[in-house]
């Protein structure tokens, strides 16, 4: 239940005053709204205390026993949400009567006139605070006293037990339905009393809520009217009683990010359901989300309205989208409240005059720790509605990706998942850069392997075809994997040689975009860039929602291929800001940073590898960055995480051995590192490619190291750790390499080298 002493502004109608205080906007573009009601309830007369029901006085009823009994079943104290990734404490079901407020009083800081929105009922030099009176600004009567009392019978069916909360439309009451086994229900006012026309209109407009049926939304049972003491009807909505605890936290306490995200993932489908019905919830905030023993539920449907409707636009300052006065309720205004709710649950938001200030605190440690979470919040609450998530489903998909990152970071266990907007990686890049240098043992050629943009581009994930595009069926049926074949198929489709079933392919954005992808794979950046320019103009005409990031992705790829790393970074950041839960833009940014020599490579490689150790390119990239920073042991630990099921497992083991020994003077190498490298090579079959040359490297390094150091004589790769034993080992390795040398000249060179290290023998 709500705490009457909290300074939360509560659910209030959207008003120009609330929004003008925090932003400038054109009054002429604002929606026309009715006079705004706030917490106060209209009470024109304070003498008569009688209450009558619109229905005739009912027959005598029997109250339920106040001492209700429950049957408990043994259950786990926790349950899992967020696709099973997050464990949360289970809420214990409690007696509904325990939710009753013992002293239903509205705090002075929350008292506002229902008509003009000005503060009323406050203590002043003229006297103490008054719970009832007349607004000194507009002359409207107000009352902050409950309109219903324990024992009142509403429409001869609902027995009032008392108040459980106070909201923007007055008190919320617990009652028992005497017609249905004394089922606990909740009664909440539809609009403020005092305006009969508004009451009648609200009753008519709210009937559609009875059709809302979703497991995560409180059930609507009935709409009733109850006469106040003046005989004026007051409308109430009768809802399911949801026992449990709201997400509203005490001041100073915040939820872990993973837990908050898991809760929102349970709520977003409910919002998406409302949006599919043409409805907007309008008032999402922590206190309107109840955690029950089995699930989460949205409560308080009093602010629900139709999309783009005007009139009573209720919401809570600090959570409400700034543009709602001009646009009316939209999907994007609801998305804004989701972002603000997530922020309120996890961040220390700044407040002013009892409400949260718009924006995010950039210095919050949570945002510094979880970069993708911050990007998601910033998109959800972007001042420009067009830049927010286009739907609850889209936000849910990105939120799930962010959750995987957060849980992986918190637990140290990878949490991979399939993307719904990007393909899997097409191949890998940078995997054998380090071990390729040892190929000189194999063929006698110096190999200066280095990371290149074309190798990166051929391996990067690509955007999946938008199934809503008119050209999607043709792409799925005709496009082949090779770029040249893809271009041939696209030309055939464009010239009508393929059956398009009468579809106007000129409106397709995916067909030219696939052509751009093929051109980039072929390295024809100039032609691909021209296509992208044409495609941008087509996209403006088609007005496809949420499609711009695809253009940014391929512009970033084009810039990467021309070594314009700053431009590539700019476009990949645009994609990441739009899709913060995706790994693909992070891999692209990491690879771009590595080519540019930027320190950002480690940050993005680390995020991807920590989240999904199936993205092998990220693991090797992180190891390269760690090794370059002098953290060789960290690099080896990273390579050790390559799964044994990966076809790059052997390369990872060999690379870790090379990382331990190469690229530095022999004085910097320790016996522990030599033996560690030897153990890694020894665990691999001798028939594996490159094992022979890495064995020669390890034994040769050990022989050079022993010239100036002493060590235990335990065997290494089957030879004693002595000068004589290591010479025998190096000789044997070189002769084994000579047997598989590709040329006669290199075979002789290896044999000569083996003879040179062979220990002296006596006859």
Automatic annotation (TrEMBL):
A single Pfam family it belongs to is PknG_TPR
**Which residue ranges does the record annotate as region Disordered?**
25-82
Q: What is its EC number?
A: 2.7.11.1
Protein kinase domain mapped to chain residues: 158-400
Enzyme class label: transferase
Cite the entry's keywords alphabetically: ATP-binding, Kinase, Nucleotide-binding, Serine/threonine-protein kinase, Transferase
Report a single Gene Ontology molecular function. protein serine/threonine kinase activity
Entry keyword Kinase: yes
Its recorded reaction(s) are: L-seryl-[protein] + ATP = O-phospho-L-seryl-[protein] + ADP + H(+); L-threonyl-[protein] + ATP = O-phospho-L-threonyl-[protein] + ADP + H(+)
User: Kinase among the record's keywords?
Assistant: yes
Q: Which InterPro entries match?
A: Kinase-like_dom_sf, PknG_rubred, PknG_TPR, Prot_kinase_dom, Ser/Thr_kinase_AS, TPR-like_helical_dom_sf
**Where do Low complexity bias regions lie?**
49-75
Would you tell me the protein name for this molecule? Serine/threonine-protein kinase PknG
Organism annotation = Mycolicibacterium canariasense (Mycobacterium canariasense)
């Amino acid at each position: 239940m709500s705490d009457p002493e909290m300074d939360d502004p509560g659910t209030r109608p959207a008003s120009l005053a609330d929004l003008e205080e925090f932003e400038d906007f054109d009054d002429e573009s604002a929606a026309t709204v009715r006079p705004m009601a706030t917490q106060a309830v209209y009470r024109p007369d304070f003498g008569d205390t009688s209450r009558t029901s619109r229905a005739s006085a009912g027959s005598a009823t029997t109250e339920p026993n106040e001492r209700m009994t429950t049957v408990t079943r043994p259950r786990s104290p926790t349950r899992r949400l967020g696709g099973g990734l997050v464990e949360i404490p289970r809420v214990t079901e409690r007696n509904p009567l325990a939710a009753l407020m013992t002293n239903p009083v509205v705090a002075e800081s929350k008292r506002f006139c229902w008509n003009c929105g000005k503060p009323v009922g406050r203590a002043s030099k003229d006297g103490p605070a008054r719970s009832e009176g007349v607004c000194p600004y507009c002359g409207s009567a107000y009352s902050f006293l409950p309109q219903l009392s324990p024992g009142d019978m509403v429409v001869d069916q609902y027995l009032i037990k008392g108040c459980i909360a106070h909201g923007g439309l007055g008190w919320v009451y617990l009652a028992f339905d005497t017609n249905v086994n004394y089922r606990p229900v909740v009664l909440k006012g539809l609009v403020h009393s005092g305006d009969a026309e508004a009451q009648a209109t609200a009753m008519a407009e709210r009937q559609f809520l009875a059709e809302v049926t979703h497991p995560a939304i409180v059930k609507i049972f009935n709409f009733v009217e109850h006469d106040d003491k003046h005989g004026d009807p007051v409308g109430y909505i009768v809802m399911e009683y949801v026992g449990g605890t709201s997400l509203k936290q005490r001041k100073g306490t915040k939820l872990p990010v993973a837990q908050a995200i898991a809760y929102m993932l349970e709520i977003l489908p409910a919002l998406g359901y409302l949006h599919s019905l043409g409805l907007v919830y309008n008032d999402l905030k922590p206190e309107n989300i109840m955690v029950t023993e089995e699930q989460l539920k949205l409560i308080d449907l009093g602010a629900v309205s139709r999309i783009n409707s005007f009139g009573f636009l209720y919401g809570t300052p600090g959570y409400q989208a700034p543009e709602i006065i001009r646009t009316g309720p939209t999907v994007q205004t609801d998305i804004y409240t989701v972002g603000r709710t997530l922020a309120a649950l996890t961040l220390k938001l700044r407040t002013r005059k009892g409400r949260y200030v718009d924006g995010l605190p950039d210095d919050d440690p949570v945002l510094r720790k979880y970069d993708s979470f911050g990007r998601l919040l910033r998109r959800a609450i972007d001042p420009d509605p067009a830049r927010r998530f286009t739907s609850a489903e889209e936000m849910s998909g990105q939120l799930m990706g962010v959750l995987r990152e957060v849980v992986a970071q918190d637990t140290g266990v990878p949490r991979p998942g399939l993307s719904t907007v990007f393909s899997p990686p097409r191949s890998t890049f940078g995997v054998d850069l380090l071990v390729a240098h040892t190929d000189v043992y194999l063929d006698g050629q110096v190999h200066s392997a280095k990371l290149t943009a074309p190798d990166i581009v051929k391996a990067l994930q690509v955007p999946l075809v938008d199934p809503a595009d008119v050209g999607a069926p043709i792409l799925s049926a005709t496009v082949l994997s090779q770029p040249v074949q893809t271009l041939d198929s696209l030309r055939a489709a464009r010239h009508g040689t393929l059956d398009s079933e009468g579809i106007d392919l000129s409106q397709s954005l995916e067909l030219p975009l696939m052509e751009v992808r093929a051109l980039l794979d072929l390295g024809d950046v100039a032609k691909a860039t021209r296509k992208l320019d044409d495609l941008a103009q087509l996209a403006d005409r088609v007005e496809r929602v949420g499609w711009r990031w695809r253009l940014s992705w391929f512009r970033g790829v084009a810039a990467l291929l021309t070594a314009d790393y700053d431009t590539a970074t700019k476009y990949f950041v645009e994609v990441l800001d739009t899709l913060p839960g995706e790994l693909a833009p992070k891999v692209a940014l990491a690879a771009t940073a590595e080519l540019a020599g930027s320190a950002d490579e480690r940050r993005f490689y680390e995020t991807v590898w920590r989240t999904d150790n199936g993205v092998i390119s990220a693991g090797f990239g992180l190891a390269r960055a760690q090794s370059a920073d002098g953290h060789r042991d960290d690099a080896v630990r990273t390579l050790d995480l390559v799964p044994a099921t990966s076809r790059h497992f052997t390369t990872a083991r060999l690379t870790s051995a090379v990382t331990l020994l190469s690229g530095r003077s022999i004085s910097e190498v320790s016996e522990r590192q030599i033996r560690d490298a030897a153990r890694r090579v020894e665990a691999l079959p001798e028939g594996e490619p490159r094992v022979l040359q890495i064995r020669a490297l390890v034994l040769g390094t050990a022989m050079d190291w022993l010239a100036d150091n002493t060590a235990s004589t335990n065997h290494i790769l089957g030879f004693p750790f002595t000068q004589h034993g290591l010479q025998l080992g190096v000789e044997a390795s070189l002769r084994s390499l000579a047997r598989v040398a590709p040329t006669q000249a290199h075979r002789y060179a290896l044999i000569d080298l083996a003879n040179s290290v062979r220990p002296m023998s006596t006859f």
